[in-house]
Automatic annotation (TrEMBL), chains A, B:
PANTHER family reported in the protein's UniProt record: HTH-TYPE TRANSCRIPTIONAL REGULATOR RUTR, MYCOFACTOCIN BIOSYNTHESIS TRANSCRIPTIONAL REGULATOR MFTR-RELATED
Name recorded for this polypeptide: TetR family transcriptional regulator
Domain of life (superkingdom): Bacteria
Keywords: DNA-binding, Transcription, Transcription regulation
Alphabetical list of SUPFAM superfamilies matching this protein: Homeodomain-like
Listed PROSITE patterns: HTH_TETR_1 (PS01081), HTH_TETR_2 (PS50977)
DNA-binding residues: 36-55
Transmembrane segments: none
Family annotation (Gene3D superfamilies): Homeodomain-like (1.10.10.60), Tetracycline Repressor, domain 2 (1.10.357.10)
Domain HTH tetR-type as annotated: residue spans: 13-73
Length: 197, 197
DNA sequence: TGCCCGTGTGGCACCGAGTGTCAATCAGGC
DNA sequence: GCCTGATTGACACTCGGTGCCACACGGGCA
């Protein structure tokens, strides 16, 4: 089923991958902001205009998957029995998503992300979109009144979980990838929820 | 002491205020993204080029104070005795900042902020700057080892507090300002720290 | 009063991101 | 071999933002 739907879609996927490859190489080599779209396009052998038919913005090259990963997280979350309490369920769902690619590359990309304001902003924006996807399920787990739109509980819990993931990433980058990301996340959540503060 | 340091600075402040006034009127009237900088400049009676000598970006007209408010929050936090535990101290410090302007205007601005991606992104970016300012003091309150850069506790707590403020604002806007913002914040933090989840 | 200096100002050219339009191209079905 | 529809490249345009330069104006000084 995956990749035999005609030459069109296949070549489109190929171009897509090629742009990503070329762009990432340029980004890591000379920096995100220093790389212009014209440069990416000409290096990838397409026109400037065509580039924008594959990616809406330059940031999307780096963060394109993030929104889809939100859907993955939602599916993962919905697959976890409702008897599992919110925090544990969120932790399981988020981990299922975040760990896939090569650690070394991931560190480089993360460094770039945390060091480039426009990228950081977009990534946070996309993480916010996760919130919408995950909140309904957490409401169920909380047994909250689904009609009460002014109950901040589920939103707060989801947003905090995502924030902890972000903080963990920050510390991870700061420590040059020496710490374990999962462990950092666990400690972040623990310290937020620790009663002794 | 405030405003008698010569004609230059006084007139500069006047122009600054005038731009803000004019721009806000246009924003609330026809939307943020639909308002162009040329329009703001010509309405305020200055050149396009001069506009950029007062504001680095269009977003800064709306969010200009936010970074300064971070410093205010830091000062407020540092004025609270170290014996007060982190969460309470953060709550007090953040409240001292956020409640000042007219509620009706604030609601309009908040609606615009949560409804305009680029504004939302920038506001998050600026809130991140708050983090850097508040973390050191929270580390003190936690009695954390100041040399241990890989301890995520203080960062997580500060980030979560700010996130809860953000979530509260979101719900507040969603409910058209009917709820009490402070109350929403309190409930957000409570639900995050509630042990029964 | 007349001069100089520093700062704010406007105008201009320029860059990069992103969009609308249109004609040419090319794969695939008939 | 031809028609159709999606893809492409080229061009022009908008908008946000920056660098540069010449000019005007306020304030201090002789």
């Amino acid at each position: 089923m995956p990749d035999d739907d005609g030459l069109w879609k296949r070549s489109r996927r190929a171009v897509y991958a090629e742009i990503t490859r070329v762009a990432m190489e340029l980004f890591l080599d000379q920096g995100f902001e220093e790389t212009t779209i014209d440069q990416i396009a000409s290096t990838a052998g397409i026109s400037r205009r065509s580039f924008f038919r594959y990616f809406g913005t330059k940031e999307d090259i780096v963060l394109g998957d993030l929104v889809d990963q939100g859907s993955l997280a939602r599916e993962a979350l919905e697959a976890i029995p409702l008897s599992v309490p919110p925090w544990q369920a969120l932790q399981d769902a988020l981990w299922q998503v975040d760990q896939r690619t090569d650690q070394a590359v991931m560190l480089e990309v993360a460094k770039m992300m945390y060091g480039t304001p426009s990228l950081r902003a977009r990534s946070i924006e996309k993480h916010l979109r996760w919130q919408e996807q995950l909140v309904p399920n957490i409401r169920l787990r909380l047994g909250a009144d689904p009609g009460d739109a002014s109950d901040p509980a589920a939103d707060a819990i989801v947003a905090t979980a995502i924030t902890c993931l972000d903080v963990a990433g920050q510390i991870w980058v700061r420590g040059d990838g020496k710490d374990d990301l999962k462990e950092l996340y666990r400690r972040a959540v623990d310290s937020v929820r620790s009663p002794g503060t």
